[in-house]
Amino acid sequence: MAPPSPDFEKSFWRFEKILHNLERVVTSWFTTPLVLLIIRSIFLTYSLITLALSIYVEFGRGRLHTYLTYFANLGFIGLTVYFAVAVVHSLIFVIYDEPKSLSTQPRALTIAFWILYDVVVVYHILIPIFYWAILVPSRIEEFNSSPPLLTFHEISIHSVDLFMIIVEVVLSRMPLVSSHLIFVLTILIFYLFETWISYAINNTFPYRFLDWREGQKVAGYYFGVMGIAINAFLIQKLIHMIRDVIGRRTWRKGLMHEMEGYPRAGGNRSQQSSVGRSRSRGIVVRSPANEISTCTCTDEIEMQARA
Predict the structure, then answer these.
(1) Which keywords label this protein (predicted)?
(2) For the chain, what is the radius of gyration of the CA atoms?
(3) Which residue stretches of the chain are H helix?
(4) What SS3 class is residue 25?
(5) Contacts of 72 (CB under 8 A, 6+ apart)
(6) Domain map (residue ranges) of the chain
(7) Any residues with CB less than 8 A from the CB of 173 and at least 6 apart, and which?
(8) 306/20 Cα distance (integer angstroms)
(9) Strand, coil or helix: 243
(10) From the CB of residue 269, how many other CB atoms can be counted at a distance below 10 Å?
(11) pTM of the predicted model, to two decimals?
């Protein structure tokens, strides 16, 4: 696959952070790719079960025709798709010890996957906030009297999703760059337009606080949605920064114990041999992807840690 052009590397969108380091998608600062795969697989299984239950519940309510007008439903579909794609890439990496699926697919798909990540990590902070702060208080009696199956569905869609996203953010090495806030807000604006389309078709808004028939105060909710989305993005940006700072320090400490070499599971036997012990001959470096390479100076080691 041809490397991105120099102009592309200086892109405002910083796509090179993924395209030049595909291992970020399938590796972790704190655990092995196999453990990351197992956790993602568990989350995918839970998401698929919850998604099927969600469709069943909406069918029982007679609201299946409006299923895709609800932001929480769309958000959970996006979350499920993210974990499905992440599991495929992680599985292939664990099998082949290299990101074959990422390196052979069109760059546009890798970028689209990254944008999907940007969206789900922000929206699944936004969804629980609006559900528990606005929707539940307005129908607390209905929520308290809900049957267990419906309660499980509501909590899964509006709470467990946040837990899964936080675990994914902490354990993965996916980046979050500031310019991608534009993608997050643009998609959110499109959804707000969709609520108007829903009103034109079904004569109702999916959420009462977005219904312009309720008065001018609704305008505040529209701006509030955008404001909370921006703050959710900033919170996630901070979490990503803290994760990477701690992760790099943890990796550097582990690097000091790798001077004698570290066998790469499933790798070539030639890579498992002892490499030079001195600075002039190079030292063995194990990245978070469990890849072994030879560096001849500490500057190169530092560059790997910052990747």
Answers:
(1) Membrane, Transmembrane, Transmembrane helix
(2) 23
(3) 6-9, 16-19, 33-60, 71-96, 100-104, 107-130, 136-138, 140-144, 148-155, 161-171, 181-202, 217-255, 298-306
(4) helix
(5) 127, 131, 157, 158
(6) 6-250, 259-306
(7) 23, 24, 25, 27, 28, 29, 244, 247, 288
(8) 12
(9) helix
(10) 8
(11) 0.82
Give the residue carrying structure tokens 């604006």.
189
List, as own/partner pairs, every contact residues 303-307 make where C-beta atoms lie below 8 angstroms and the sequence separation is at least 24, other chains included: 305/248, 305/251, 305/252, 305/255, 306/248, 307/20, 307/21, 307/24
Residue reference for tokens 């099998």: 95
Q: How many CB atoms lie within 10 A of CB 236?
A: 20
DSSP 137-150: HHTHHHHHT--HHH
Provide the residue-wise pLDDT of the chain in tens; the chain has 307 residues: 455 555 544 578 888 889 999 999 999 999 999 999 999 999 999 999 999 999 998 888 888 888 999 999 999 999 999 999 999 999 999 999 999 999 999 999 999 999 999 999 999 999 999 999 988 888 888 778 888 888 999 999 999 999 999 999 999 999 999 999 999 999 999 999 999 998 998 888 888 888 888 777 888 888 999 999 999 999 999 999 999 999 999 888 766 555 444 444 344 433 333 333 333 323 234 444 444 343 433 444 445 555 5
What are the tokens at 211?
A: 């219904």
Place of tokens 């890798």: 110
Q: ∠ CA 236-241-243 to the nearest 5 degrees?
A: 90
Comparing C-alpha atoms, which of 168, 175, 174 is closest to residue 42? Answer: 168
| DSSP character at residue 267 | S
Give the tokens for residue 57: 């519940």
- List the structure tokens of 305: 């840690």
CB burial of 192-218 (b: ≥16 within 10 Å; e: otherwise) equals: eeebeebbeeeeebbbebbeeeeeeeb
Residue 181, CA distances (Å) to 85, 115, 177, 233 in order? 22, 10, 8, 7
